[in-house]
Amino acid sequence: MSSEVKVPTLGESVSEATIGQWLKQPGDVVKLDEPIASLETDKVAIEVMAPVAGVMGQHIAKEGETVLVGAVIATIEDTTAVAGAAPVAPREERAIPPASDTLPPKGTPAATETEAAVLSPSVRRAVLEYGIDPATVKGTGKDGRLTKEDVVHAAQAKQAAPAPAATAPAPSPATAGERREERIKMTRLRQTVARRLKEAQDTAALLTTFNDCDMTEVIAARERYKDLFEKKHGVRLGFMSFFAKAACLALKDIPAANAYIEGDEIVYHDYVDISVAVSAPNGLVVPVVRNADRMSFAEIEKTIADFGKRAREGTLTLDDMKGGTFTISNGGVFGSLMSTPIINPPQSAVLGLHRIEDRPVARNGQVVIRPMMYLALSYDHRLIDGREAVTALKIIKEAIEDPTRLLIDL
């Protein structure tokens, strides 16, 4: 007896996906509701769960193939007998050994596939690039799987460690002047990001206004209350909640920055749903903090922390990314000094945050050193006038430089 594995419902208006990776191969033992494949949609990666327990049968769809919702992509065999059946013999070892906390003793049998952690394409590329044995790295992803960050950290630790004494001749170096190329198909998510960003440039009249912001008061407030905040709310107090609340103030005064164009109409919103750009293993994702204007600092921080955790684990859903009226992108965490962010259609504005650095500034006729950050607001000039954009960014700047404004709605 066999059961069909079908593409699950992927969300509103999403009718197809791409097979990203098969997590189970023919002959593998499969448990009920165990992930057996990953699908890539335009916005997020989704795992396909086993509908029954049994043994993995035929892969009807190949990795990289586009499949429709409801399509049969595989079968699971022996579903009625697997409970009392003898364990399935493990298949031959893969080219890349599975991840585990420690290497198995020399001469012991290889781990079965049910115990092996599966490496995603991005992790496989990182393993090959950095020359790391995945079996020596402990995974921090879902179910102990390796992430690209785990491999990078292991490579950094390997570089920092003292070189071991040579016990065997070193391999011969690569041929001098050797040049290599590698072709990797773009993921569906990366293709969608590329298409949407280009559409934004082709459709919107994009313009960016800049300002600089003195972070002294926010840093002092965060330092003063961070321990009490974490003790009471169970989450760290970051800068993002300050900027989210400051953006809400600006969007109330400048509603065009919280609106978008639809046909020949302008759609205004009496709520603020802030899209927060988050880096994930498969690319940039933009989950939405809904009703941010009605949330407390703690609620915003908890929501963003949860998004970051689930982005790294690959468990964000399409609903998490649906909608959004305004976007905040923090390139400062990667060291960016200044940028011109591109709006997230159909939104009309995006706030870009950058790194904080000490710079000399004039205060009361004196040159002093202050922690400064450049702010950038990119906007659709079809809808937002320059005066409105500059005013919105100025409101954000003033609220950050004097956080009391956030409390008295000024």
Describe the structure.
Helix 5 packs across helix 8 (386-401). With 410 residues, the protein is of the alpha+beta class. 28% of the residues lie in helices and 24% in strands. The chain has three domains: 1-89, Beta Barrel (OB fold (Dihydrolipoamide Acetyltransferase, E2P)); 90-159, E3-binding domain (Dihydrolipoamide Transferase, Irregular), CATH 4.10.320; 206-408, Chloramphenicol acetyltransferase-like domain (Chloramphenicol Acetyltransferase, 2-Layer Sandwich). 32% of the residues are buried. The model is unreliable at 81-117 (pLDDT under 50).
Briefly summarize what is shown.
With 410 residues, this protein is an alpha+beta fold.
Counted up, domains total 3
Largest sheet geometry: 7 strands, mixed
- CATH architectural name of the largest domain: 2-Layer Sandwich
User: In CATH, what is the homologous superfamily of the largest domain?
Assistant: Chloramphenicol acetyltransferase-like domain
Instruction: Output the helix-strand order.
Output: EEEEEEEEHHHEHHEEEEEEHHEEEEHH
User: Which band does the percent of strand residues land in?
Assistant: 15-25%
Q: Count of DSSP E strands?
A: 19
Overall 3D shape: globular
Based on CA atoms alone, the radius of gyration comes out at: 25 Å
CATH class of the largest domain: Alpha Beta
Span of the ends, CA to CA:
68 Å
**What is the tally of helical segments?**
9
